[in-house]
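Our consortium's second objective concerns turning raw sequence data into structural hypotheses that experimental partners can test. To show how far this objective has progressed, the report includes one record in full. It was chosen at random from the queue rather than selected for favorable results. The single chain below, 458 residues long, was entered without modification.
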Amino acid sequence: MTDQPPVHKPTTRRRQLLGRLSLPERTFITDALRTETVGGMLLLTATGVALIWANVWPHSYESVLDYTIGPSTPLHLDLTLANWAKDGLLTIFFFVAGIELKREFVAGELRTPSAALLPVIAAVCGVALPAILFVLVNSGSGGHPSGWAIPTATDIAFALGVLAVVGSHLPSALRAFLLTLAVVDDLIAILIIAIFYSSGIKFWALGLAFAGLVLFWFLHRRGVKGWYLFMPLAVVVWALMHESGIHATVAGVAMGLTLRCHREGDEEHSPGEHIEHLVRPISAGLAVPLFALFSAGVTISGPTLREVFTQATPLGIVIGLLVGKTVGIFGGTRLAARFTRAELNPQLKWADLFAVSVLAGIGFTVSLLISELAFRDNPTLTDRSKTAVLVGSLLCALVATVLLKLRNRHYRALCEEEGRDTDGDGIPDIYQEDDPAWRARVSEPTEDLPGERPEPGR
């Protein structure tokens, strides 16, 4: 009886978590986050101005917020500047979020179920755990469980603004994870707003808004072009959605989702990508900072800060942002990676993902919006909640800064490797290393330039 050779079973390659992005995806992420980083810096500046304005000249700040402008029509568009910022400017923000979400589903990280699973689970856990912690803290007497959604949001612009300030060279894979997480988070936030913070639904207005959305989609799919046509239609859809009782920002997301975000024929960019490229600077550089200017101005004092850590509602917000978002995102990602047998990029550590999870606890923009919606009949509680959002976001920013600084040297080396372009062709070397023709080209000795040839006798 002869010995049989051992049978080797084929091994399946484990999917990599936070692996290298494709070159088109890396280029898109880099361009998008560059705009968001600038917007984040403006957002930080606008927040600082709002706080100084509200604390040094409080009566002036309140009078500006309460200034009413707009036509007194059957659609009730004579709104205060604070409401225009909340219902109007943030519609632009959510319009961009809708395009981002559509693009992620058709061409980005969410286009395949296996790739979408990790960021979706991370985002869902990052929404669920803060809400649970908030409700637990507010379950006793004196609590207000209706504000459960306040600590559930992630503000990508504010987070990138913090990164710009601390100078962290975060690798593109971690930045892409943060952006994808924020996109899914925005979808969940708009669903929460539409379902839980809408009241007095007027079905005639909602039906007309839906008809306007169908017309918007039909004209776009038929290839009709012209901002002079789509802009008035978008305003009408927004006004009808505002009148319907559904929060007006839902119109922005819905219109963003109707755009085509996949390329056809010889298109260099899809219509959705082109429109996003035009509108994103307006959203990040104008709409969101102005919203912060009109929403972040709360009175800061010793007693106010003490209430943040002694009253149930603000304490639940701080715990939700700092603990709930961090543990939810990090724990959800680790569990999903374990059960899907995904393998972490060997160039990174779980500590890197933990630091990004802390950074994602910066709620700000959407958290401020939900604070106003949850306690619209209680201005004192609204201001207390906004103060808690600012404190919780600041704590997340400080903790994340410390954690990222500890690994900043390693991040800098990874970023230099990602961006190295030996032959100057505009394509980083890491995307060409497996090409024999490229290796042969870069290994050839370069000839001296005429002006650099050594002189005879030297």
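The partners drew two points from this record. The longest helix spans residues 23-56. The domain at 20-198+247-419 is CATH 1.20.1530.10 (Na+/H+ antiporter like fold). Both points have been shared with the crystallography group to help prioritize constructs.
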